[in-house]
Each structure stands twice: as structure tokens, then as C-alpha cells.
Specification:
Order of helices and strands: HHHHHHHHHHHHHHHH
Shape: globular
Number of domains: 1
Distance between the termini: 80 Å
Radius of gyration: 33 Å
Structural class: mainly alpha
Helix content: over 70%
Strand content: under 5%
């Protein structure tokens, strides 16, 4: 009772359930397929995380700087790396010459002259047809345009799209200009005189001082186990590289003969040059066969009157290359020299991007050397070290 006899009426005011309405509104606006994180746990060692991140960043910066250095030093490193790969291939021959008490100077001169003879033979067989076809470049361009008249409508449509997108001063002709393709290719493929001199000079001194180089490489390590591991790496690199490239060279000789026979059967000129070209290009996985196919097709367009006849040599070589790549090479190489196709392709792409056509030839040998070194440094049957 209140003073004065008045009875106070007490009303209970019901407040709305804010949490329920808010959750209902949020559920109504929430997407049906929201991002879910199952059982998140807080990090217990934050310092270790940042230490790992710093180490990863350091390694990443080193890799980037290494790639930049390899690219900038290409005029010097490319012939040196090529000489190193060739000297490692000839390493077992040098070792055998040492066992037979042949002076190192004499064996180095013989092997060096052998490499020069191979290079000279390849250049001599390819120089005459290449010079002849370069002289016919204008006629080749006109003949190709005449033979590919079936592509006039697509090329015209492409020209209209180009005219619509590009300003008038940047419009050009879509015709086939062989010289515009040949000249840059020659500038890239043809080595400079200085790089050729560096290659043969480095190769000779590597063959001459093979034993000294091995002793210097071993002297970098103090522990006996590390020295033995380095010797095993060098021996296995020489053995695997020589074995792999020797078997591939024998297979490529057969491929070259088949390429020359295909050119001869189709009626293309210079079948010997085509055989040599097929032998060389088959050292480049995947890309070499495509370049050979394109070359046979382009020359067939100029040589033969019909498009069907021009496709004869490429189709013959395609069948032979397919037979070699899927049946002959796997049965001969076996599991011992089998490389992961993805690793080979990535190595080919990387070294071609970095060092051009010569890098494409060096891609597989460098991959073999790297895999041998990784196999010794990180063996599969090595027990895990305690943390």
C-alpha cells in the first residue's frame, strides 16, 4: 500500500528477445553454403611459425636471384655448362684411358678432336640445304600462300578483327614472310664466335684436368663421409649421364634414318639432311618431334603441288615417332633410365625459357645430374632424424 491509500498498479513489461530476433535475422541473411572451418586450434608456437616463414622467404629470394643470375650470365654460363655436360659424358672414356696409362694430354686431345669432328660433320651436312632454302625464302613465302588458299577465309576474318582492334598506323599484313622467321631463328640458334671459343676451350681444359677437378671438388669438404658422398655423386653422374645419352643417341640414329627414309619416300629433297636433323632434334623431348613435323610440312608445301602430297612425309614421320616414343624407347630404356614425364617437361620448359634452344638440349642432361645428386643427398631409405 502506498501512502495516501492509493494502490499502485504494477505492470510487467515483456522485453523482446533481442538475441532470438538477431539470430533469426542473421540466419535469414546468411548464405546457404557458408565457408566452414572445422575444429580451429590456436597456434602454440608463434615464434616457430615466423622463423619458418623467414627461412622460406630467404630461400625464395635466393632462388629468384639465382634465376636472374643464370639469365644475366647466359653468354658465359651457357658454353661453360655445355662443356661441363659433354666432359661428364666423356668422363668414362677419360677414366679408361687413365687405366691404360695413356697420357692425359693425349686422351684430352683425341676426345676434343672427336667432338670437333662431330660438330663439323653436322654443320657440313646441314649448311648447304639451309643456305639453299634461305636463298629461296621469297619464293617459298609465295608458294605457301598459294598452297594454303583454303585458309583465305579464316585469314580474312582474322584481318578484319585486327583492323578493328589496332589503329591504322599499326595494321600490317598477315601474309607468310619466311625471312621474318628465319633471321631471328638464325640469330638465336647460331652461336657467337666468342661462345664457341669458350665452349671448346673449356671442354679441352676440363678433359685435360679431369682428375684435378675431382680432387678440388672433394677438397671442399672436411669430413670423410662428405668426401665419399661427393665422389659417389660424380661417379654416378658420369655413369648415368653416359649411359642415358648413349642409349638415346643410338635410338636417335634409328629415328634419323627413319626420318631420312620418310623424306626419301615422300620425294623431299636432301633426305640425308633430314636424317641428320631428325637425329639432332630427337634429343629434345616432345618439342623436337614437333619441329621436325613442321619442317617436313613446310618444305612439302613448297615442293609438292597438292596439300595431300605435302602431308605424306609428316604423317610417315609421325607414325615412326609414335612407334619410337611409346614402344621402342620404353622397352629399351626400361625402368633404370625412366624419367618422370612431368619432370622432363618442366625441365625442358624452364631451360628453354632461360637459355633458348641450347637450353632445350641441356634440359635432360641437367635433370639427370640433379636427380642423381638429390638421390645421394636425400636417399629414400635414410632413417628419419630425431627432432
Amino acid at each position: 500500500m502506498e501512502p495516501g491509500g492509493t494502490k499502485a498498479s504494477i505492470r510487467r513489461v515483456e522485453k523482446p528477445d533481442v538475441s532470438r530476433s538477431a539470430s533469426g535475422a542473421s540466419n535469414a541473411g546468411q548464405p546457404r553454403f557458408a565457408l566452414t572451418v572445422s575444429d580451429p586450434q590456436p597456434m602454440t608456437e608463434v615464434a616457430r611459425f615466423w622463423r619458418t616463414a623467414a627461412q622460406s622467404a630467404t630461400i625464395g629470394m635466393f632462388v629468384i636471384l639465382l634465376i636472374v643470375g643464370l639469365s644475366l650470365a647466359r653468354p658465359l654460363l651457357l658454353p661453360v655448362a655445355s662443356a661441363f655436360v659433354v666432359s661428364m659424358m666423356l668422363g668414362p672414356l677419360s677414366a679408361r684411358a687413365e687405366r691404360y696409362k695413356i697420357p692425359s694430354l693425349l686422351s684430352a686431345i683425341i676426345l676434343w678432336l672427336l667432338v670437333i669432328g662431330v660438330f663439323y660433320g653436322v654443320i657440313a651436312l646441314l649448311a648447304s640445304p639451309v643456305v639453299e632454302w634461305i636463298g629461296k625464302a621469297p619464293d617459298i613465302g609465295r608458294n605457301i600462300q598459294e598452297k594454303l588458299h583454303v585458309l583465305d577465309r579464316p585469314l580474312a576474318s582474322l584481318q578484319e578483327v585486327r583492323d578493328a582492334l589496332l589503329p591504322s598506323e599499326k595494321k600490317g599484313d598477315l601474309g607468310v614472310d619466311i625471312i621474318s622467321f628465319v633471321q631471328p631463328a638464325l640469330l638465336i640458334v647460331t652461336p657467337a664466335i666468342g661462345q664457341t671459343f669458350i665452349f671448346f676451350g673449356t671442354l679441352f681444359f676440363m678433359l685435360l684436368g679431369r682428375s684435378e677437378l675431382r680432387r678440388v671438388a672433394v677438397a671442399f669438404f672436411d669430413e670423410r663421409e662428405a668426401r665419399l658422398r661427393m665422389l659417389k655423386i660424380m661417379n654416378d653422374v658420369e655413369h648415368n649421364l653416359t649411359g642415358y645419352l648413349s642409349v638415346v643417341a643410338i635410338i636417335n640414329i634409328a629415328v634419323g634414318i627413319c626420318g631420312g627414309v620418310a623424306a626419301w619416300v615422300a620425294g623431299l629433297p636432301d633426305p640425308v639432311a633430314w636424317a641428320v636433323l631428325a637425329f639432332i632434334l630427337n634429343f629434345i623431348p616432345y618439342i623436337g618431334a614437333l619441329i621436325m613435323e613442321a619442317g617436313l610440312f613446310m618444305v612439302g608445301l613448297v615442293t609438292f603441288p597438292t596439300l595431300t602430297h605435302a602431308l605424306l612425309a609428316p604423317l610417315l614421320f609421325l607414325g615412326l615417332a609414335t612407334l619410337e616414343g611409346h614402344f621402342i624407347t620404353p622397352s629399351i630404356m626400361g625402368r633404370k633410365f625412366t624419367l618422370n614425364p612431368l619432370t622432363v617437361f618442366l625441365s625442358l620448359v624452364f631451360w628453354t625459357w632461360l637459355w633458348g634452344p641450347v637450353g632445350a638440349f641441356l634440359a635432360v642432361p641437367l635433370l639427370v645430374m640433379a636427380l642423381v645428386a638429390v638421390g645421394h643427398i636425400f636417399p629414400k631409405d635414410e632413417p628419419e632424424l630425431p627432432a
